[in-house]
Amino acid sequence: MGCTTIRESKAGLEVLGGRRADLPEGVVADLASAETAAAAKQLCAHHAGKICVAIPSDKVLLRVVELPTVDPAEMRGMAELQVDKFSPFPVEHTAVSLELLSQTEKSSRVLIAAVKREIIDAVGAAFGKAGIIPHWIDVEVMGWWYLLKQAGEIPDRGRRVLLLLDKTCTDVIVSQDGVPVVFRSLGTGRGVSAEDFHTELAEEIGYTMTALEAEWGALETMKIGLWLWPAEAPPKMAMAEGVPADAAAPAAVEPPPGLIPQLTEACGLDVEVRSLATLASLSEGLARRTAARAPMTLDLAPPEWHVQEQTKRTQKTLLIASAVFGVMWLIGISILLSGGRVSTRRIAALKASVEKLEKPAQEVSALTEKVASLEQFADRTHSALECLRDICQRLPDGIDLTSFSYRKGGNVSLRGDAGSAETVYSFFEALQQSTLYASVKAGEVKQRPGGGRPEFTVAATLPGAEAKLEE
After folding, report:
1. Which range (65-69, 80-84, 399-403, 462-466) has the least confidence?
2. HSE of 439 in the Cβ direction (CA atoms, 13 Å)?
3. Is this model's pTM higher than 0.90 or not?
C-alpha cells in the first residue's frame, strides 16, 4: 500500500513525499483486514488534508459508453440504466459513479464504475479505525491511465492497446484517438499456473479486440503495449521516498516466457515491452489526478462520508476556537487580576500619602485661621467704634436708636424708632451708600399700637462675613 502527498505551489504541484506500507502476502485483496487498517493508519494518520483512496481495479466493474446527452443530470440517470444491464449486483447494494471522458455538442463518452457497497464500507471501516474519512474513492487503473497520458504514451490518433501487469492486478486499457474505450481487469492469476494465466490473458485480449470492433467499429490498431515491473525492481522500490520513479529502472525488462507469442497469435499484433518503473508511482499518479479533478470525475465515496468529514472538520475547528478562546480568557483574567493587585497597591500607597499629609495640612489650616483672626482683630477699619461713628453721621433727625449690636467680622444690627416711615427709609438709603458694609438689609417698619412712633430694624453685613457663610 503506497501513499503520496502533494500540494499546490506557485510552480505547480509539488510532491512532498511518498511512503509505502508492505502488507503480508495474501492480505492485499482483503480491504477489511486489521493489517489494512494498520497500514492506513501508518500512512495517513498525520495527514491534515483531504485523502483519496483507490481500490483495486478487479473489485470494480468498468464500462465506457456513449450517451446521447450533455446534461449531467441526464447522464447520471442513463448511467444507472446502463448499470442494470451489465452489473450482477442489486442496485440497492451497489455504489455507482461516472466520469466524463470526452464530449461533443450532442453526446458524451463516459466511464461508468459500479462496485458492491460492502467493498466501499470495508474501505471506510479500515480507514475509520485510523480516525480517517476518505474524501474520494477512485480506482487504481485510473491512476495508471493518468500517468500514461501525462508521459505521452497515448497517441492522439488511432487505437492503442495497453496491458498492465502490476504485482497486484492485471489491467487492459484500450484508447481510440486519445480517449479510452475499454477498461478491463483480468485479475491477478492467483491459484493458476503462469502458463495458464498467460493463455487466459491472450484469449481475453483477443475477445476484447473482437468486441471492440463490433461496438466501436473497425480501426487500425497499433502495437500492444505490455507494461510490467522488472524482476529486480518491485513496485516498492519505485515508490521509495526520495527516490525518482525512474532511478531504479533497469536497462531491460524481461517479459514472462511465452506471453508475447501468445498475444501475437491471439491478436495478430506486435508487442512492445515497457517498464512500469519508468513511470511515477501509482499513488503519485492518483494524487496528481485528484488534484486535477474535473466536476465529473469518478468518486465512489458515499455522500454521507462527505457529511461526516465536514462534521469532523467543523468539530475540530470549534475545538481549536474553544481552546484559543479559553487561552485568551485566561490571559484576560490574569491581566485583570494583576491589574487589580496593582490598583490595590496604588490605592494603599495613596492612602498612606494622604495620611502623612493630613496632619500637616490640618496644622496649616489652623494656623491660617489664627492669622486671619489676628488680622481681623488688628484691623480697626471695621471696628465697632468706626461702625457707630458712620451710623451716627448718617442718622437723620427724628430717629432714635434703641439697640446697637456689633459682631466682629459678622454684622451690625440696629433697632430704633422714628417720627415717620419716610425718615426710616431715608436712613436705609444712607446706610446702603456706606463703604463699610458689604450689604445692608432693611427690616420691617412697624407702626406702634395706639398711633405711636414707627419702629424699625436693620442689619448691615461686614466684609468677609459672606465668605464665611459660604464656607
Report:
1. 462-466
2. 8
3. no
Instruction: Report the chain's C-alpha Rg in angstroms.
Output: 55
Residue that the C-alpha cell 512532498 belongs to? 16
How far, in Å, are 56, 345, 372, 406, 443 from residue 461 at the CA level?
Answer: 116, 50, 18, 10, 13
Q: CB atoms < 10 A from the CB of 390, how many?
A: 19
Cell representation of residue 392: 451716627
- Predicted pLDDT at 112: 93
| Amino acid code (one letter) for 47 | H
pLDDT tier at 423 (50, 70, 90 boundaries)? confident
The three cell numbers of residue 450 are 395706639
Q: Does 234 have pLDDT greater than 60? A: no
H or E segment to which residue 3 belongs:
strand 2-9
pLDDT band at 34 (very low <50, low <70, confident <90, very high): low
Average pLDDT over residues 289-298: 88
DSSP code at position 427:
H
Angstrom CA distances, 249 to 141, 163, 237, 456, stand at: 21, 19, 9, 135
124, HSE (Cβ side, Cα atoms, 13 Å): 16
Q: How many helices (H) and strands (E) does the chain have?
A: 12, 17
Residue 410, burial from CB neighbour count under 10 angstroms (0-12, 13-18, 19+): middle
